[in-house]
Amino acid sequence: MLVLIGVLLVIVGFAIRLNPLLVVTISGIVTALLGGMSPLEILNAFGSGFSSSRSVTIFVVVLPVIGLIERFGLQEQAKALISKLARLTTGRVLLGYLVIRQITAALGLTSIGGHAQTVRPLVFPMAEGAALRRYGTVPDKVREKIKGHSAAADNVGVFFGEDVFVAVGSILLITTFVDTTYGLHLEPLQLAVWAIPTAICAFLIHGFRLLRLDRTLDAAVKEARAEETAAAHVSPAGGMA
């Protein structure tokens, strides 16, 4: 039971908003020590894990390309395009991306999207452009909320969509662990089929949240403008302007 302290550390670390990489690393080390591993074994486990999954860092290769297309105005063009489509709101833009992201992930195409290569240079500017068309100006607080929901749409789509694909790493990891630990034989197709109801529920729940996002942004913009108006009527000395 002591090894579960690592899970508690992850929850606490995320709750107080510490660096996620630091939180996960420390939690892994603590869990390994409580599990009886020596420091050398822990170091070896980290090295083996990185060596076997080094393809995760392949996104670094595309960063220079993303920088170039941003330098030549990709974000501005995305905002301009969305601002011309009157029926598209921030919530609808992100809902459309959620649909695309989850379907492509279910087909095994997890690498065509992501925070670095899609959300930051394309999805967020489009969502922000829809907000600018609707409100004229977007307060910083609202802009940060749009950023968060843009990243969340990508996370939910790929996380619940990829398990429907039988050859994804998580499915293979589960089947291997169950086979070697419990002596049971699981077919990847079995897990993939049972992942479909979960993916559908995740889409419906998060899609509903995105449809409600526009109403939430309306209230947030109104509140921010009311605060700005109130602050404008108060002098720096504390009296009325």
Radius of gyration: 22 Å
β-strand percent reads: under 5%
N-to-C order of helices and strands: HHHHHHHHHH
Quaternary structure state of the chains depicted: single chain
**How many beta-strand segments?**
0
Q: What profile does the largest beta sheet have? A: none
How far is it from the N-terminal to the C-terminal residue, by CA? 62 Å
Shape: globular
What is the mean pLDDT?
82
Count of DSSP-assigned helices: 10
Based on helices, strands and strand pairing, what is the structural class?
mainly alpha
- Total domain count: 2
Helix content: over 70%
Unreliable stretches covering 5 or more consecutive residues: none
InterPro entries: DUF969
Organism: Arthrobacter wenxiniae
Pfam families: DUF969
Protein name: DUF969 domain-containing protein
Give an overview in words.
- There is one protein chain.
- With 241 residues, the chain is mainly α.
- The model has no long low-confidence stretch (mean pLDDT 82).
- The protein has helices at residues 5-15, 20-34, 39-52, 63-71, 74-83, 90-106, 115-135, 140-161, 169-182, 188-232.
- The chain folds into two domains: 1-49, no CATH class; 73-233, no CATH class.
- It is 74% helix and 0% strand.
- The chain is globular, with a radius of gyration of 22 Å.
- The protein contains ten helices and no strands.
- The termini are far apart.
- Helix 5 packs across helix 7.
- The longest helix has 45 residues, at 188-232.
